[in-house]
Amino acid sequence: MRRKLESIFVALWFALTAAMSLSYQRALWNLTANTATDDSNGSDSPNLLMHKISFDNFARLQTPPKNIYVLGERNSGTNYVARILRNSFDPPNKPDPTRTHEIFSSDIPVLLHKHMFRHALLNATELMEIYNRTDILWILAVRRPCDWAEGMYRLPWHMCPPKNISSGCPGKFIGFEHKETMKQYSLRDFFEMEWGDWPESSNFRNLSFVGDKFIYRNVFQLRRHKLRLMKQIIDTVPRNVKIARLHEIERSPEAFIQSLILEFDLKRKEGPYERASQKMHVEKCFKRDEWKIAQREIDWGLEGEFGYTFLDCHMCYHPNATDSPGFVFNFPKKNQRRDPIEN
């Protein structure tokens, strides 16, 4: 009787495993279903590309990869990640010595610039080009969404002048930031403000207007678009991607380097081990109205693909909290109930 039960259990186990494998295979056929509804600048949809790629033929990264490229939105730690990589590995090409911050980010195929200054999703032809580049390891730098949004408020790199987007953008030089202009607006105002981004161009140093496509409803919509671009790369070449979360790398850059060596068989240059950053970004908390806007606007389903949840966006619990970093707990007194968070 015991052996009979064991045989039944084994049969059920194999049946369950086969069903899970089939379910996983079907999921892979629809990897880009969520991105096919956005803008496309080609005849084939990104979703169509995945149906052209066999389940057994996902791009396999050359081991070790010949090229490493860093992608990420502004204020996400792309420069820091590139500096960590530079200490351990050789860049794919020789960058401009006057622009060392673009190391591992110059001459990026398809996307052209590390900050992905394009305002449509990648089309099928572009995704196929990425798929065929099995020599590239893509490092995707990301930062916790609320910390990132607050950072964009303090350093709004490449933002067109608010309330006057069309007349003053793109400006006279690259890298213009409206740091002083932002001081007249509160963080809540910033969260509800349109973000006019640098216009799309094949040459970042020769920008030109492309109409209203580069205007986003707010900074969170800008982030959503950039994450969707990176998600397209993840779906196209899942074995060729490493997600670099800033708060993790700042605490242990050496662990990040070691993971690259183990996962991708990279050869490390001679040099010292990486120490934790001495300028770690402190976790921020928001006032109730700021927090509510952020929770409403952030696409937490998409953020989950990069390792973030709604718990990564914190509200200040101190009654007089303004810009207090991290948590400031205000515990209720005995027999005192805290008012529930409004919907």
Write down the Rg. 23 Å
Low-confidence stretches: 20-44, 50-56, 202-212, 322-343
Q: Could you give the order of strands across the largest sheet? A: 1-2-5
Number of helices: 13
How much β-strand is present in the residues? 5-15%
Termini separation comes to 57 Å
SSE pattern: HHEHHEHHHHEEHEHHEHHE
Helix content bin: 25-40%
In total, the number of strands is 7
Number of domains: 1
In terms of structural class, how would the helical and strand content be classed? Answer: mainly alpha
Quote the average pLDDT.
75
Q: How would you describe the shape?
A: globular
Major sheet summary line? 3 strands, parallel
Structural account:
This protein has 343 residues and is mainly alpha-helical. It has one domain. Helices cover 38% and strands 8% of the residues. It is built from 13 helices and seven strands. The chain has helices spanning 2-29, 46-52, 78-88, 124-132, 145-154, 165-168, 179-182, 187-191, 219-236, 246-251, 253-264, 288-297, 300-304, and strands at 67-72, 136-142, 195-196, 215-216, 241-245, 285-286, 314-315. The chain has a three-stranded parallel beta sheet, sandwiched between helices. A two-stranded antiparallel ribbon has the order 3-4. A two-stranded parallel sheet has the order 6-7. α2 crosses α4 (124-132). The longest helix has 28 residues, at 2-29. It is globular and about 55 Å long. Mean pLDDT is 75; it is low at 20-44, 50-56, 202-212 and 322-343.
